[in-house]
Amino acid sequence: xxxxxxxxxxxxxxxxxxxxKNANVINVFTEEIxxxxxxxxxGKVVGIGQGYCGEKEIDIKGAYLSPSFIDGxxxxxxxxxxxxxxxxxxxPSGTTTVIADPHEIANVMGLQGISFMREATKNLPLDVYMxxxxxxxxxxxxxxxxxxxxxxxxxxxxxxxxxGIAEMxxxxxxxxxDRNVLSKxxxxxxxxxxxxxxSPHLSGKDLCAYVSSGVRSDHECTTPQEAVEKLRLGxxxxxxxxxxxxxxxxxxxxxxxxxxxxCMFVTDDRHPQDLNGHIGAMVKTAISKGVPPVKAIxxxxxxxxxxxxxxxxxxxxxxxxxxxxxxxxLNDFNVLSVFKNGLQxxxxxxxxxxxxxxxxxxxxxxxxxxxxxxxxxKIPAATKNIKVINVIENQLITKETIENALIKDxxxxxxxxxDILKIAVIERHRASxxxxxxxxxxxxxxxxxxxxxxxxxxxxxxIIGTNDDDMYYAAVxxxxxxxxxxxxxxGKTLAKLELPIAGLISDKPAQEVIQxxxxxNEAVKKIHCSIKDPFMSMAFLSLAVIPExxxxxxxxxxxxxxxxxxxxx
Length: 569
Known about the structure:
Blueprint lengths: L2 H9 L4 E12 L4 E10 L2 E6 L4 E6 L4 E4 L1 E6 L8 H8 L4 E6 L2 H7 L1 H10 L6 E6 L17 H5 L7 E7 L2 H5 L3 H12 L3 E4 L6 H9 L4 E2 L5 H9 L3 E5 L11 H6 L5 E4 L11 H11 L4 H7 L2 H6 L16 E4 L7 E6 L2 E5 L2 E2 L33 E7 L6 E7 L1 E3 L2 E3 L6 E7 L8 E7 L7 E4 L8 E5 L2 H13 L3 E6 L2 E7 L11 H17 L7 H6 L9 E4 L2 E4 L4 E2 L5
Helix pairs in contact: 3-4, 11-12
């Protein structure tokens, strides 16, 4: 950094590298808007005022200049895209920084997976900071590819691109003083880095204990009441709008009534077809619901930067990175152009820099199952009554009901008439032979099966089907492609997306992945699926940290009791 140059440009003694002329500057410190020119040197904002001259000058003619947007919590792997392809979509929407939790790939590949994501995110027009996964595996109720302890995380905690410890999903472990869990919390605290939370429905004294440990955020609030309780205890509220979990509209009363300086926007998990607009779309939605525009932008920029202790991000001010976007209005705005470190990287919805030379490092295959026999999918009937997982569309939580099983020749089978379908989770990392079997309600399949190697959080193979033949066929198809998503019927593949990178990520361009996903969505309609995005809903049925009833390779899980439970009642 040439400090003398920066000072001289700020004084107006020499020309800036870039001057944005005639801007309506959005000031997220004072929550006001005023006309000014913005001078940039060495990738930083150095001056705001009148009379600056630049080697390059851009007159935006009264358009709004806003800090660019920051996603405070995202799993890049959930997009199923390489980070370069992810950037091609979100950067033109105004996002220039994301805080990524490589939790998904770490559950499959461990430190090698984190290193892969770090290498794959270099040299992008997108800053990617990371939080180190705290729960690999998320619980002891499932089998992951790797077990990361605090000693493993200590190898990376001092890296400048690491901002702390990612979502501490094992909140019972924190509350119960589990030594292994607390060692990860202590690691973040000792380094004065953030500890992110994950505590759905946690309340009262247990919530106080969780916050007292050093956890400072939560992205699982689904009601204003839950968010207010956590806000009152000093937590930062990450308002989430993902593909499956959509909480923004429900939390509008929070943004309207309470101080929003400890609120920020996150996407968590989004499929590629839902990336357009990204954080900017959340800002527009908040504005449309009555949140003042500058406050909405503040939540998408400064609040996030300050929470993560990024002192040079999130605002347009001297000394801050020249990361900003040009907006045509403050209601249903279009992002006219995007600047990263003072360079224009997108215009009118298109990236203006070339990312062709970015090649990610190779990774080993990751779908390693013990030889599977079709009879292993059979469920001997112990009684007539079974516990059934009930999905709730657009929610990660499920409900448990007791239903009558359809029993044939002594085996419990899928009952398409009553929408009670067999679900299987097959361990795919260590060839252990573990298979969890149960039943799920809400998908509506009348024939065939759907299967995927994307199944939070350990990402074992998950299958829902109307019959064992198609479920078995689907499993074999995923082994052949070393991961992916597949729709089958009568022993034939109707649609398939291959995800050869850790069974989570495609190596194809974004548009090709989106096109294949559209084909998959059409295929699930042919087998009468009643859920809009069944693969996203299915992916969370193995997440044993969100109530009420889930399933892993070890069996049916009562999340409220945090233990394995019996299928038959």
